[in-house]
Amino acid sequence: MAKEREARQDDLADYVVKIRRCAAVVKGGRRFSFNALIVVGDKRGKVAYGYSKANEVPPAVEKALKDGQESLKRTRKIALRGGTIPHRVIGRYGASRVIMVPAGPGTGVKAGPGVREVLQACGVSNILTKVHGSSNPINLVKATIDGLLQLRTREEVASLRGVALS
């Protein structure tokens, strides 16, 4: 379902992960509103998500995109090694667990919906993933970002432990 939208001048990639319709029953019938979940990234290690609601789909997508771009400014850069991640990591959010394992060149992004868009927006090109627990797209996006923020390079770990690399 998710597809990359047209390229813009600020070289950010954005993916529409999920659009959901919500119905409120009122006197005259049903009133519909829409929720949009969008992932925004620069494909160089920064990624964020935007979530918004509106009465029509295009305004919901635009509001979510704006929300994602604002939160992208506040996120830190994720440590990537080549086209993959430096080590195995488990991202958690709510009942969702996303296990991410580094993969060799040519593997591609082996991931389901929600997780795939986050990894592509981040710039990961080779990775293996597995989802345990809830498959709610909002929680999967948050769990994937949580896992990516846990990543550390060898140099970062060495400086945190006060050890010299040999």
UniProtKB/TrEMBL annotation:
Keyword Ribosomal protein listed: yes
Keyword RNA-binding on entry: yes
GO biological process, one term: translation
Keyword terms, alphabetized: Ribonucleoprotein, Ribosomal protein, RNA-binding, rRNA-binding
GO molecular-function term, one example from the UniProt record: rRNA binding
Gene3D superfamilies documented for this protein: 3.30.160.20, 3.30.230.10
Xref: InterPro entries: Ribosomal_Su5_D2-typ_SF, Ribosomal_uS5, Ribosomal_uS5_bac-type, Ribosomal_uS5_C, Ribosomal_uS5_N, Ribsml_uS5_D2-typ_fold_subgr
Annotated ranges, domain S5 DRBM: 12-75
PROSITE patterns (alphabetical): S5_DSRBD (PS50881)
GO cellular component entries: cytoplasm; small ribosomal subunit
Function: Located at the back of the 30S subunit body where it stabilizes the conformation of the head with respect to the body. With S4 and S12 plays an important role in translational accuracy.
Subunit structure: Part of the 30S ribosomal subunit. Contacts proteins S4 and S8.
Family per record: Belongs to the universal ribosomal protein uS5 family.
Annotated domain remarks: The N-terminal domain interacts with the head of the 30S subunit; the C-terminal domain interacts with the body and contacts protein S4. The interaction surface between S4 and S5 is involved in control of translational fidelity.
Stated name of the protein: Small ribosomal subunit protein uS5
Organism of this sequence: Tuwongella immobilis
